[in-house]
Every structure is written in C-alpha cells, then in structure tokens.
C-alpha cells in the first residue's frame, strides 16, 4: 500500500524522535544497574540535558505542521494509520503545554529522588525520603495542571499509563473484585492445608541465574536483542530492538526471584513483539501498562505457576538444585509455587493477595494526589490501609510505604495497571484456551510457541490502535470485567487448599 507523503513524512519524524527517546530510556536503565554511587549528581545533569533536548525536538512547530498535514488526509488512510495520527496529535498537544523549566526540574528531581529512596529504604528512614516524595507529588500535580487537568489530576495521571481509564473506572472494577476476592483469601488463609516455603533455602544466585536464563530463552525472549541484568527493583525497559530486563536474586526466596523474572520476561516479550517497522509511532507502541501487565502476569501466573509448566521444568530445576530439593516432594514444591499467605512486600506476594496490595496503593496515591492526606501522614495512612486490606501492620516503613520504587520516579497512576493487568490476563486466558485446544499439553513438552504466536497476533502486532477496554471487547467479545479472574483464582487455588 502506497501511503500519502504527509503521512510518511510524519512517521519518519516520529521514528527519529523515537530513537532520541530510546537514548533517555537507556540512561535510565544504566542508572539503576551500573551507575557508580558517587555519580548520581552527574547523571541527574545528563538526564536534565537530554530531557531538554527531547522537549525541544518534540515541541517543534514543524512537527505540529506535519501532524496537521496528516490530519488533512485522514480520509485517505486506513484505521491503523489514523491511529498513528490520532496519537501523535494527543502527544503533541500535551507536550507543547509544558515548559523547559518544568522538564529540567522534573528530570533532576526524579534522579535525585531515586537515589534518596535507595538510601532511605536501606536505613528505614522515611524522614530522609519525605521531601523527595513531596516534590514528586507536586511535580505530578503540576504536570496535570500544565496540561489542563487541574480539576481531576489523578484521572489524568491514570490515563497517562492507561488511556481511557479513570479513577471511577478503576474504583468500579476494584470494588467488584474485592467483594469476590476477600472470601477466597479468607478461605485459603484459614485452610488447614498450608504451603511451606521455608524449606527452600540456600539457592545460590549463580545457579538461580543459570536456570532462569534457560527458562527465559525457552519462553521466547530474544537475547540477541535483549539483556538480563541485576538491579535493586526488577524492571523491564528499552525497546523491542534493545530490551533491557533486570531482576534480583534472593537465596532464601528463590521462587520470588524466579517468578519476578518470568514477570519481566512477559514485558520483554511484548516489547519484542511490537512491529519494528513502526517504531516511534503508535503502531509500534504498547497500548498502556494494563495491557503490558496482562502479558507479564499471564506468563508469570497462568503459565509459570501451572502444573503443565512444572511437568516440563521440575526435572531441570531438581538437576540444578539437587541438594537443595532432595527433601522436597513434587507436591510440596508445587504447593510452595502456589503458596498463599500474608506478605508485607508486594513483589513477593502471591497472586491471590497481590490485588489487595494494589488496592492499597491505589487508595493511597489517590488520597495523596487529591490532598486528602499529607505526606507527613502517609506512613500512618499506609499502615491503616494495610491492616484493613491485608490484616497486618508493616513492621517498618521500609517494608511499608517505602518498599516500591515507583513514587521516587514520579509514577503516580501506575499502580492500578497491575491489577487491571491481572483482570485482563484472566479474560484473555480463557479466550485463548478456547481457541488453542491442547495448549497446556504444549507446556508439558516445553513448547510455548503457540501461545506466543497467539499473543503476537491478537495483542502485540496491533500496537496502540485500541485502548484497553476496546481491546478486551475486540479479543474476548465482552467488556473488561472481573468474572474471569475470580474464576481463575478459584480453579487454580481452592483445590490446593481443601
């Protein structure tokens, strides 16, 4: 198909800007993986200069003219190309409302806040992080205000990560989920059958990494265009052509390390599945973080914690960790893999209680951004919500309000995506099981290609043509809802705990 010159001119410029943005992402990865501790201020200034350059390039009047020219010929474009023009307009109209001063201040503040968070968490000293958190909150509200969303800043911030989503949408879904989820949690917690994860001790980091790299490659991650490194907090960044994943290895929590890494692999597979020929445009971008999380959570949970997966991988796991597992039966190992219990740490929690952790964070940051609680009151408010939702008060702020990296990076509005991703993952899961008969038999043989191909076709290759709720309707034939997640949790966990 021959595309009109105004459209091709726009996409060439968007691709150029995409390359520039990828450099900034690479610096962010390096900051959390390789940067010497004494170089934090130097990196802050690098980030500021690069952010200023990116801002000047993305606000050029010539880009606005290119978008307007492409808008003038939308009748000649197919729906996918129309989505490119639509998203280019949304992004441009937003960024031109910002100021160079704001861009610089935000870049420097985020770099400072990350390093302050690392030190404050290690010292369990919320006071040392308090001012940085307040600054990140203020910057988030300022961002919403500058772009014309001062009336509902939190809705705007949620939409930054999940276009089309609002606080009310999330509230409705979370309320429905909570009413069905809490009884499941209570039934499992009160069951006489309980998993024993304490028997999994002393799994050396080198052997964990050896096993993990085999798993990640088998799932389909392309190491020729990606890396796996170590960081304080696991994450996936970069692009499909240079995907940077990180993990952390805990010798006495090997399953946490494993599934956290499989989770990041799901993100990496999504990035590597986006059409490379559309890099820099909406057709080469993910829908948003809820869809991104649906991919990572599906690989981590529906696939990675399933019996079929472990029928293939258990022999290899036992081969690598022969002495560590010689006293652990297969049934005990599988129950440990699907252990359910109260944990203070979100990234180490099980998938049944995980959603309650997200509800806590959603409630917290909504109140913080809307100003109904202050930063000074935040630790006590966190502890109160933890007791209400999870049944315990964290023993420290390091295991409470300071455990996550997100707020140090100004990522307010991100947390709901995790639970929304769980909801979508389950909805997609039952759809693909209907369309791919015998899929779990594939997993027993170590074959994951059919699943990856289905995700490539139905999710990855679409880029950002459809927002989360429209995508759910398109693929599954029904709106995004919590019924499938509740069904999945009941089918996976209740038989184990009766």
Question: Quick summary of this structure?
Answer:
With 498 residues, this protein is mainly alpha-helical. It has 21 helices and three strands. It folds into two domains: 5-151, no CATH class; 167-497, Neurolysin, domain 3, CATH 1.10.1370.30.
Polypeptide structure, described:
There is one protein chain. By secondary structure, the protein is mainly alpha-helical. It has two domains: 5-151, no CATH class; 167-497, Neurolysin, domain 3 (Orthogonal Bundle). Helices cover 63% and strands 3% of the residues. The protein has 21 helices and three strands. Strands 1-3-2 form a three-stranded mixed sheet, with helices on both faces. A hairpin with a 2-residue loop joins strand 2 (236-239) and strand 3 (242-247). Helix 8 packs parallel to helix 21. The model has no long low-confidence stretch (mean pLDDT 96).
Q: Kindly report how far apart the N and C termini lie.
A: 59 Å
CATH-defined fold name of the largest domain: Neurolysin, domain 3
Fraction in beta strands = under 5%
Q: Segments where pLDDT lies below 50 for 5+ residues?
A: none
- Structure summary, number of beta strands: 3
- Mean pLDDT equals 96
Q: Give the name of the CATH architecture of the largest domain.
A: Orthogonal Bundle
What is the CATH C-level name of the largest domain? Mainly Alpha
Q: What Rg is obtained from the alpha carbons, in whole angstroms?
A: 23 Å
Supply the number of helical segments. Answer: 21
**What is the percent of helical residues?**
55-70%
Structural class: mainly alpha
Strand order of the largest sheet: 1-3-2
Order of helices and strands: HHHHHHHHHEEEHHHHHHHHHHHH
Biggest beta-sheet profile: 3 strands, mixed
Number of domains: 2
Give the overall silhouette: globular
